[in-house]
């Protein structure tokens, strides 16, 4: 499910709106993805030890870098899509991908 998230303006004491650079004002959408548990733990450790900000910011910055590298290898930005992407994950006969919930739920003590 994709949802648009509009930034809320924060007013100063005198009621004026502070100047926010255009990059901070960019629209955002929520995207739900499934990541391997080991990668998610590495990302969390990187955020914790580097003070990078939030997990979401680290993921967004990393994806931005990856797409920039892909565009550079392509020689130019990719053209706009001609159709929407198919939603959901591909269906296969024997697909048992680990879920994000598995990485959040602690295992019981034995």
Walk me through the structure.
There is one protein chain. The protein has 110 residues and is mostly helical. It has a domain of 46 residues. The protein has 3 helices and 2 strands, in the order E-E-H-H-H. It is extended, with a radius of gyration of 19 Å.
Alpha-carbon Rg, integer? 19 Å
Major β-sheet profile? 2 strands, antiparallel
Tell me, what's the shape?
extended
Taking strands numbered 1, 2, ... along the chain, how are they ordered across the largest sheet? 1-2
How many individual β-strands?
A: 2
Strand content: 5-15%
Helix content: 25-40%
**Strand pairing plus helix content: what structural class?**
mainly alpha
Round the mean pLDDT to the nearest integer and report it.
Answer: 76
The arrangement of helices and strands along the chain is: EEHHH
Number of helices: 3
**Contiguous uncertain segments of 5+ residues:** 1-13, 16-20
State the separation between the terminal residues, measured CA to CA: 37 Å
Give a brief description.
The protein is mainly alpha-helical. The chain has helices at 37-50, 55-74, 100-104, and strands at 3-5, 28-30. The protein starts with a strand and ends in a 6-residue tail after the last helix.
């Amino acid at each position: 499910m994709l949802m648009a998230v509009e930034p809320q303006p924060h007013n100063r004491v005198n009621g004026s709106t502070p100047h926010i650079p255009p990059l901070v004002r960019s629209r955002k959408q929520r995207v739900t993805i499934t990541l391997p548990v080991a990668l998610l733990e590495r990302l969390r450790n990187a955020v914790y030890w580097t003070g990078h900000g939030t997990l979401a910011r680290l993921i967004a910055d990393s994806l931005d870098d990856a797409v920039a590298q892909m565009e550079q290898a392509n020689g130019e930005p990719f053209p706009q899509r001609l159709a929407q992407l198919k939603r959901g994950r591909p269906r296969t006969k024997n697909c048992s991908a680990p879920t994000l919930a598995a990485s959040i739920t602690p295992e019981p003590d034995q």
